[in-house]
Amino acid sequence: MKVLKKEELLNLASQVMDIKEKEVKVKDEGKLKELIDDFIYTAVFGDEEAKEAARWLIRASALDLGIVPSSIHQLYTGPMARQELPNWFTVPAMNIRGMTYDVMRQIFKVAVEKDVGAFILEIAKSEIGYTNQRPAEYTACVLAAAIKEGFRGAVFVQGDHFQFKADSYFKDPEKELENIKALTKEAIEADFYNIDIDPSTLVDYSKPTLKEQQYHNYINTAKMTAYIREIEPEGITVSVGGEIGHIGGKNSTPEEFEAFMEGYLEELHKYGENLPHISKISVQTGTEHGGVPLPDGRIAKVKLDFSVLEKIGEVARKKYQMAGAVQHGASTLPDELFHKFPEVKTAEIHLATGFQNIIYDHLPEDFKEEIYSWLKSELKSEWKEGWTEQQFIYKTRKKAFGKFKKSFWDLPERVKEPMLKALYDKFYFLFEQLRVFGTKEIVEKTITKVKVLKEKPF
User: Fold this and answer.
1) CB 180 within 8 A of CB 167
2) Nearest alpha-carbon partner for 104 in 157, 132, 146
3) Alpha-carbon gap, residue 406 to 401, rounded angstroms
């Protein structure tokens, strides 16, 4: 892979596509697949002019080939909400923190081989910061990987945990709301047509009633839903997710969910009678993001309460026409648990740290040592009292993906090959366990693909 200058990029592009004001016509897909490695490398590491041009060319090429950023709302509020799936599946939503293009290619490989349509590629608000991947860059990686692997159809890109900071919110609620709005606008403009709003950090369990406890959560979820409906592109209903249980906290209950929904729907109706509401709800079942590292570096076993997902999911579908409950923090769970998620009709499952662990397991020792030295030097303030060095490294090493982004991308093929094979195997396993093989057909039938054209920036 190499960085191209804008003139070089446009010259190469003109050999494989006809470039118009708002779109392109791909003339030679085979040649485009050869060039796409350099296009995406430029979209990530080029100068600003070249980055912008590369991202537009990748996006326009994808649209012409029938690779279309889409909202999963119609699937969630249609066949899933009505329980009309012939065989229930749980949609995997995967946070890719580093080596993004290479890792996503493994996902699209499995998708093409096994006719998978129901899967989401996502990045959380916190990850956008510490991995140094703004939404437009992340989407470019998604679309470039789809082009490279010959994927066709709807692609679902999601903003995960667009989370309110409790300290900031209670100091200045409007300012924190505006921060979340600004990120949401940036994300939707970058084709994130699936957004998970997370004010669950504002829940106050000291209040006497469930509805009062959820007050700041539901009013801000309603405000954000209304804002998203204002700015979403014509013809697209962005899939919006809510959250009632802050991950790592106490387990959620159906009663909490109903109290949240009562307040949320009352609030949302103030903005308009028929605004589409959230399509899913994230709950706490006993997991923690990244898992809980023990002093020796192993991950503690989790007692996960599947009945939470089942009971809240049932209420969500029957009472509110939603897809059901969402499981966060699941990628470090034991392999033997994953088949249970579709059995209890979980709508969606978020997976991240397990993929990061595979990457780290395959890194050369000298590179790993360089990263760990940086963590101990630059992030020592995050070393909590009582943590061993293994616990500190396990909890903080995700934050090296931004600082060492180019080094990760530039790893030699001999290092990448076994790593990417292990990731491919993991995606294959998860997709099989979650029953998403063969879901291309239902996605094609259900999702309206809307091509949002944009003026070329050059």
Assistant:
1) no
2) 146
3) 9
- Rounded Cα distance between 262 and 221, Å, is 12
Quick: pLDDT tens for 377-391: 999 999 988 889 888
The CA distances from residue 376 to 243, 344, 365, in Å, are: 34, 42, 16
DSSP 8-state code for residue 78:
I
3-state percent helix, strand, coil for the chain, nearest multiple of 5: 55, 10, 35
Give the residue-averaged pLDDT of 415-425. Answer: 97
Q: Are 55 and 9 in contact (CB under 8 A)?
A: no
Contact 45, 406 (CB under 8 A): yes
Q: At what angle do helices 254-269 and 215-231 cross, to 10 degrees?
A: 50
Q: Say what the pTM is.
A: 0.93
Beta strands at 153-163 and 120-124: parallel, antiparallel or unpaired: parallel
Q: How far apart are CA 97 and CA 99, in angstroms?
A: 7
pLDDT one-digit tens code per residue, 58-99: 999 999 999 999 999 999 999 999 999 989 999 999 999 999
Pairing of strands 67-69, 24-26: unpaired
Tokens, residue 60: 């326009």
What is 84-359+410-446's CATH number?
A: 3.20.20.70
Question: Phi, psi at residue 157, to the nearest 5°?
Answer: -110, 135
**In the chain, where the domains are located:** 6-65, 84-359+410-446
User: Which of 193, 256, 180, 274 is closest to 221 using CA atoms?
Assistant: 180
What is the rounded distance in angstroms from the CA atom of residue 110 to the CA atom of residue 100? 16
Backbone angles phi, psi at 413, to 5 degrees: -55, -35
Q: How many whole angstroms from its chain centre is CA 367?
A: 27
The Cα 418–Cα 98 span in angstroms is 16
Cα-atom radius of gyration of the chain, to the nearest Å? 21
